[in-house]
Amino acid sequence: MENMLRVGVITSAHGIKGEVKVFPTTDDAKRFKELKEVILDTGKEHIPMEIEHVKFFKNMVILKFRGYDNINEIEKYKSRDLLITRDQAVDLEPDEYFITDLIGLAVVSDQGAELGILKDVLETGANDVYVVAMKDGKELMLPAIGDCILNVDLEQGRMEVHVLEGLMDL
């Protein structure tokens, strides 16, 4: 299980005073107001970044980091991930999981058949959809609903599912 969770990606500089536009990868962008610090993943190192102030614009978060006061200091971090440690993460409700914890789980049917590996989670308006890479090279799309997802065992690295009639035919 990953100790770091991605909460956003720097998309560009915002103005000339060191602010950045961040595309939030968390369900609730307003949580940036509560964060005092994030970790910048440069690809080579992790740099703690103290958040000086937060603004919101359309679907983006505008962040200003302490000590970064002009565009030249911050522009080089475009397309870099912003992370938090797991202890900074929001509390999950029962049967809620971080996507990063689900990716890579072995997916097994309630009939005992090994279907494949969970490779992606599509976030739709109604419910998430789990994308399973099957052994035959095809993909199986499973709605993340109680009728389909029977059990998720992160410690065992497996998910038990019921494949609704017709889903294997798609």
UniProtKB/TrEMBL annotation:
Q: Which residues belong to any copy of the Ribosome maturation factor RimM PRC barrel domain?
A: 100-166
Q: Which Gene3D superfamilies match?
A: PRC-barrel domain, RimM
- Which UniProt key words apply to this protein? Chaperone, Cytoplasm, Ribosome biogenesis, rRNA processing
For this UniProt entry, what's an example GO CC term? cytoplasm
**Top-level division of the source organism's lineage:** Bacteria
Question: Which InterPro entries does its entry note?
Answer: PRC_barrel-like_sf, PRC_RimM, RimM, RimM_N, RimM_N_sf, Transl_B-barrel_sf
Q: Which SUPFAM superfamilies match?
A: PRC-barrel domain (SSF50346), Translation proteins (SSF50447)
As for subcellular location, the record says:
Cytoplasm
Domain named RimM N-terminal: which ranges? 7-88
Give me any GO biological process, just one: rRNA processing
| Domain remarks | The PRC barrel domain binds ribosomal protein uS19.
Q: What is said about its interaction partners and assembly?
A: Binds ribosomal protein uS19.
Function comment: An accessory protein needed during the final step in the assembly of 30S ribosomal subunit, possibly for assembly of the head region. Essential for efficient processing of 16S rRNA. May be needed both before and after RbfA during the maturation of 16S rRNA. It has affinity for free ribosomal 30S subunits but not for 70S ribosomes.
Family, according to the entry, reads as follows:
Belongs to the RimM family.
This chain belongs to the protein called Ribosome maturation factor RimM
Protein species of origin = Enterocloster bolteae 90A9
Identify the gene encoding this protein: rimM
